[in-house]
């Protein structure tokens, strides 16, 4: 038969990190005609990942605008992707996760009557406002998708409860663990020399990322105040790569700029961030991806949100959701800093998200769906 024409769609750095291993896996197979379309919802940060993984888009909509709104992103991505799909007539459109590009890509494929596969499907908080707009992006994409690549059994159960047919769901693990296999190295030397000068042996380095839309305003103020007080601990070094969005950048620099034991950086390239995480003591973040990545490196994660769509990590003990209040941040950070038993409980817990073969399982699942592979791939099962 003819090769399966697949267009992979993404627009932000987190999507690109998780889709790049899958794009590379399809490129190795004789059964795929693999194309890539990026919206560049985030321009500069996306380009870093494309370069790192040597992914060359076939289409680049370049839609990013200064202070863009969700409606502007949706409309631009929807129109541009629909034109690509009409021209290419793919057999399958692959979208990932929870971004506005994800939803627009699924909707454009639906309007063009093309099958949609959702990578990292089934994550839910069951609160449409948290995270905003990601929770509804996931649910709306899930309603459109024909194939659902759920990273865990919990995600699969969420989909089953929503009426998705079981034969359309494949438990694959998360592709971000595939990406980590290629980026983290013991002998890694940072390109950013500020990071090379950190004494990782004598300092307890806390990696911080906080940028989600739901935390803009007062929550981010509280996070920064908590970090300010935490920076007074003598053996601590806080490293915060700050998102370039003015709603984040301005607040963080106003509160934290110039403080001893605080290093504020521009966003790091993916390999820089992964290797910094590997050398850090623990992670404070509102990112979804870091909740999956850090545990695979043995790093506890304190989540700067009130809810998470990744309850598997909480259950496993690798992640703790602590909210955004200054007092909560201080309390839980100090426990990890000075209570070795509590630290080791989190650091030694089994990562429930993957074994580095998620992309291979997804490729095998697509081949099975299209009748090229006879046997359904085995589901991912975490160790322990």
From TrEMBL:
Its EC number is 5.1.3.14. It comes from the Bacteria. This is UDP-N-acetylglucosamine 2-epimerase (non-hydrolyzing). InterPro entries: UDP_GlcNAc_Epimerase_2_dom (IPR003331), WecB-like (IPR029767). Keywords: Isomerase. GO terms for molecular function: UDP-N-acetylglucosamine 2-epimerase activity. The keyword Translocase does not apply. The gene is mnaA. The keyword Mitochondrion does not apply. Residues 24-366 form the UDP-N-acetylglucosamine 2-epimerase domain. Belongs to the UDP-N-acetylglucosamine 2-epimerase family. Pfam families: Epimerase_2.
């Amino acid at each position: 038969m003819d090769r399966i024409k697949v267009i992979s769609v993404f627009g932000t750095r987190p999507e690109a990190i998780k889709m790049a291993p899958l794009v590379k896996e399809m490129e190795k197979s004789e059964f795929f005609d693999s194309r890539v379309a990026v919206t560049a919802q985030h321009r500069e940060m996306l380009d870093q990942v494309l370069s790192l993984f040597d992914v060359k888009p076939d289409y680049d909509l370049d839609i990013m605008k200064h202070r863009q709104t969700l409606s502007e992103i949706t409309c631009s991505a929807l129109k541009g992707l629909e034109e690509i799909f009409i021209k290419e007539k793919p057999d399958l459109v692959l979208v990932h996760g929870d971004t506005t590009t994800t939803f627009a890509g699924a909707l454009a494929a639906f309007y063009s009557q093309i099958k949609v596969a959702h990578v990292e499907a089934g994550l839910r908080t069951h609160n449409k406002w948290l995270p905003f707009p990601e929770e509804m992006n996931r649910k709306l994409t899930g309603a459109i998708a024909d194939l659902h690549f759920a990273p865990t059994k919990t995600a699969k159960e969420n989909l089953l409860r929503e009426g998705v047919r079981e034969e359309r769901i494949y438990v694959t693990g998360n592709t971000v663990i595939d990406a980590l296999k290629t980026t983290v190295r013991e002998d890694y030397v940072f390109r950013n020399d500020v990071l090379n000068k950190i004494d990782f042996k004598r300092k307890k380095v806390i990696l911080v990322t906080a940028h989600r839309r739901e935390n803009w305003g007062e929550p981010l103020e509280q996070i920064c105040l908590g970090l300010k007080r935490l920076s007074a601990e003598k053996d601590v070094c806080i490293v915060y790569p700050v998102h370039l969005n003015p709603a984040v950048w301005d607040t963080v620099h106003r509160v934290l700029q110039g403080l001893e034991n605080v290093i504020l950086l521009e966003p790091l390239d993916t390999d820089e961030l992964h290797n910094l995480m590997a050398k850090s003591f623990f992670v404070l973040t509102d990112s979804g991806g870091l909740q999956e990545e850090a545990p695979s490196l043995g790093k506890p994660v304190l989540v700067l949100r009130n809810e998470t769509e990744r309850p598997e990590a909480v259950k496993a003990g690798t992640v703790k959701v602590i909210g955004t209040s200054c007092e909560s941040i201080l309390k839980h950070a100090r426990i990890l800093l000075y209570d070795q038993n509590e630290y080791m409980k989190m650091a030694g817990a089994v990562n429930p998200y993957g074994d580095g073969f998620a992309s291979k399982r997804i490729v095998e699942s697509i081949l099975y769906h299209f009748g090229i592979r006879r046997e359904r791939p085995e589901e991912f099962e975490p160790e322990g």
